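Exercise: predict the structure of this protein bound to adenosine-5'-diphosphate.
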Amino acid sequence: MIEFRDVTKAYPGTDVGLEGATFNVRRGEFVFLVGSTGSGKSTIMRLLIKEREPTSGEIRVAGRNLADLKHKQVPYYRRNLGVVFQDFKLLPNRTVYDNVAYALSATGASRKEIRAKVPDILRLTGLATKLHNYPDQLSGGEQQRVSVARAFVNHPPLLLADEPTGNLDPKTSIGIMQLLYRINRTGTTVVVATHDAQLVNRARRRVIELHAGRIVRDEATGLYAPTEQSTKEFGAMIKPPTDEFQAIMDSTFPADVPPRES
Amino acid sequence: MFFVREAWRSLQRNAVPSFAAMASVVVTMLVLGVFIPIIQATTGAANEVRSKVLVDVYLKTNAKDADVERVRQVLAEDTPHVGNVTFVSKADAYAEEKKRNPEAYELLGSNPLPDTFRVTPDKPENVQALRDALAPLTASGARTTTDPAIEEVRNRREETDKILSATRVVKLTVGVLAVLLVLASVLLIANTIRLSLFARRREVEVMKLVGATDWFIRWPFIIEGILVGAMGGIMAVLLLGVGKVALLDPLAADFALLSSPETINFALLIAVILGASVGVAALGSGLSLRRFLRV
Ligand SMILES: Nc1ncnc2c1ncn2[C@@H]1O[C@H](COP(=O)(O)OP(=O)(O)O)[C@@H](O)[C@H]1O
Ligand SMILES: [Mg+2]
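Solution:
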């Protein structure tokens, strides 16, 4: 789905956003990009959205070289991406329903299509009762759900989330992550940039770690922090989650939902 | 419809700069609406005077009927650029002038006026050539006459030149004023759109992220600008309409200039004003979008 080949992004000035990044993400994968602030996570996201151009190297998404996309094609490319940000990027003067509908109409969807899709996606994201609320009448978690609903309303094959839980408390974060896992189970490839160690450790998904613009680790079922030992051994060593945390996790990640193959 | 709704929404939020831009369009269009007909009317009047350009051929006061006939012959056959020739006899001229100024001519007693041929050139610009043909310039700069019976040949060039240069000045002044006003309107609309872009930068950002095309993003702003322009234009047209009905129409009855055929007709004027308003608005919007919307 995503191929980075020796991608470097140098920002004007001395800062290097990303240096020699090479990695692949397969269709249907769920990947965490981790690393401290300034390590280059957002740079990767921006390159994928084609909001920025790499200084060198090649980026392919679904087999297509992003450098070959003409300016006019970019909007159509973006319609195949869902994007979620730390700051939600909701329009404050529009209701929940209108925020999602607005995004749909921006892609040229018909009224009929909008009326059919918007309530569906809002139900799916647990916002059925908040349709006519304005963003400032919602909690942070609910706002982020609206933003996820907007990103996923067209069922894009690729969903990018840049610190989606950065503004949320741990409990709310888990809810958002659960939503992203569910989206991933529908076959959508999901890339999440985060520095929330707890979430990453609990998820046991693929982790790509960045440090100062370089990829320093890429583990299939990694933890947030790097380790010399095998993942299994490390797992046994970490202190067990608190009871409260465990209860939340159990209720939000029911064990009986098998991951869907894609 | 989506675009118009978005544009209207934005306009309401941007009320103050929108109003300023609209007021500027109103003023600009009022000036255009008042001066286009005035310029046309004065140009028409000047042309009329031009078409009445005459060369007066004064004969000597002692000229005989035979001299008159000979000069008529010269004018009809041997002189280039002659259009129309009218003969005003001594007696006719006297009667005419006496009617205009009875006391003065009462005092004079006898008739001091000569026989006169009023000659119109074939084209107004040939008036000087006609004069030169009848009264060639000598090397010393004085004029002789082609026929001994001719006393003097005069034209009324100075008068027409004055009228023409006056209309030129009016045209130039109004032209400069109009250009400045149009410029101000364009800039004020550009400013409105810039503020609107700023107020809606989040929306623009979101639209880009979800894959809206460049034109989809631009249209609401262009329509917003055009709405401002069109509202200003309509306002100006309404004011002009009121002005026409209240001031001009009562006057038109006894002021021939206003109803002269060269004056642009009102429907066309409205169309020109509305077209200009929309054009100005589109230009202003386009300017801001080019500069501030990097899509
Ligand atoms: N627009 C920009 N201009 C200049 N430098 C930038 C810009 N965006 C990011 N950077 C730099 O690139 C590096 C990586 O930033 P970023 O990708 O945002 O990191 P992260 O999302 O992991 O916090 C940082 O050193 C940052 O200062
Ligand atoms: Mg970041």
